[in-house]
Each structure stands twice: as structure tokens, then as C-alpha cells.
């Protein structure tokens, strides 16, 4: 069984977060350490530690991450200029919280994908 994370507590509203979207499959909230003017985390409500843990039965939920990202980009006013979606996997991928999550970033030019 996967270890519960801070994100699980945000989903259940046990700790405060600036939640901007929630439904039966996903929850989205503002990052507490934003890297861009708009920086929202979109997470599945089901605890999946990494992308490596995604199964075929999770396809609807994973697709919802993208449709919610599109909706939030429109609401944030960043859809037309553009935005970036990032999903990190494991240590070399830069994952810090082991509850799969997508970063929605925008509101300024974001520069190259990788530096160095």
C-alpha cells in the first residue's frame, strides 16, 4: 500500500489549501511555492505514488487531469499565450511528493524545458 501524503490530506480538506477545483476524480490547488504567476497542482484523488503506478483502469482519471488543466488555464487567462504542464517521476525526474501530480504553469515566458 502506498504511503499517504500531504496531498491526501488536502483532498480530504484536513489541511488548508487554496483549492481551485475538485470533483470525484481530481483536485487542483495553488502551489505554496509558485514558480510562475499561475502555478497550480492538479492531482488524482486516488493515491498513485508515481506515473509508474498508473494502470489501464486509471485512464479516465488521468485524462481528467488534462481536461481540468485546460479549464484552469482558461480561467487563469493563460490559455491563449500558452502554459506548461509538467509531471515528474521519481528522484531523477525531480519528484518531491510521491502522489502523482501535474504542474500547470503560466503567466510569463517559461524559457527552455531543461537547463544544464
Automatic annotation (TrEMBL):
- Kindly list the GO molecular function terms attached to this UniProt entry: catalytic activity
PROSITE patterns of this UniProt entry? HIT_1, HIT_2
The record's annotation in InterPro entries points to: Histidine_triad_CS, Histidine_triad_HIT, HIT-like, HIT-like_sf
Superkingdom, according to UniProt?
Bacteria
Q: Which residues form the HIT domain?
A: 6-115
The positions flagged as active site in the entry are 101
User: The motif Histidine triad motif: which residues?
Assistant: 99-103
Report the protein name in the record. Answer: Purine nucleoside phosphoramidase
Source organism of the structure: Photobacterium aquae
Amino acid at each position: 500500500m502506498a504511503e499517504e501524503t500531504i496531498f491526501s490530506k488536502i483532498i480530504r480538506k484536513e489541511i488548508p489549501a487554496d483549492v481551485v477545483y475538485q470533483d470525484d476524480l481530481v483536485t487542483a490547488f495553488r502551489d505554496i511555492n509558485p514558480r510562475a504567476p499561475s502555478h497550480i497542482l492538479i492531482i488524482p484523488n486516488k493515491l498513485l505514488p508515481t506515473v509508474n503506478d498508473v494502470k489501464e483502469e486509471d485512464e479516465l482519471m488521468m485524462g481528467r487531469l488534462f481536461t481540468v488543466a485546460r479549464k484552469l488555464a482558461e480561467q487563469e487567462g493563460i490559455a491563449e499565450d500558452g502554459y506548461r504542464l509538467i509531471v515528474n517521476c521519481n528522484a531523477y525526474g525531480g519528484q518531491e511528493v510521491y502522489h502523482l501530480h501535474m504542474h500547470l504553469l503560466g503567466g510569463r515566458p517559461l524559457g527552455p524545458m531543461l537547463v544544464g
